[in-house]
Amino acid sequence: MSNIMQKRVSCPNCNEEFDAKIYPSINVTTDPQLREPAFDDRLFKTRCPSCGQEFLLNYPILYNNMKKRFMIYMIPGLDRFSLIDEGLEEKYSTVGNVRKRLAPTYNRLKEKVFIFESGLDDMPVEITKLYVSELVAKKYNLQKVEDGYLSMYNRETNSLGFTFLIGEEQKPYVQSARLEIYGKAVSMVSEVAQQERQMRGFINIDREWAENVIFRYKRFLKQKKKT
Ligand SMILES: [Zn+2]
Q: Residue 182: which of 112, 125, 113, 122 has the closest Cα?
């Protein structure tokens, strides 16, 4: 079940204090009507009763899709690889095979929801995104392009699309990728990143993680050559 509460907040525009509705826990399996407004931010926005300003509330949100077996714990600004919440581990101990992810921002939360709802695996997606971002960086003559997310998955054309935000203006640029790259990333994950699949708690599968897996995979290939 979802958890809906009231929280005292203050308006960033006029400083008026008021009670806003917050959703610390969203279960889209038991409350499917929350899925759409969660995905387009409507659920997390509030309007100041005094000046009418609309703003996004920043607080930790646990997003749970039991049917598709994933949970995303969005903790704004969180900068760590893993988090074990004993209370949550116990509560969901009978539910096996759930992918648990951390997300430091709304955009990351939404990307993870999109990936898992599309039936994709976020680990190879993150590696694919890293490779594709290198192509985009080359195209724009930049050292690297870090801000990007999966925005399209087409089963018919077997392709993925990533939207990257370029430069200071954060201009969106869409780069598609063949599913073969994703397939290659799937085998990289199964060769060198199996321990992450066994980990307890929530983990952060992001660009830094993908860089680390590519490093491990190169080392793995070198060792394989030697033997
Ligand atoms: Zn206000």
A: 125
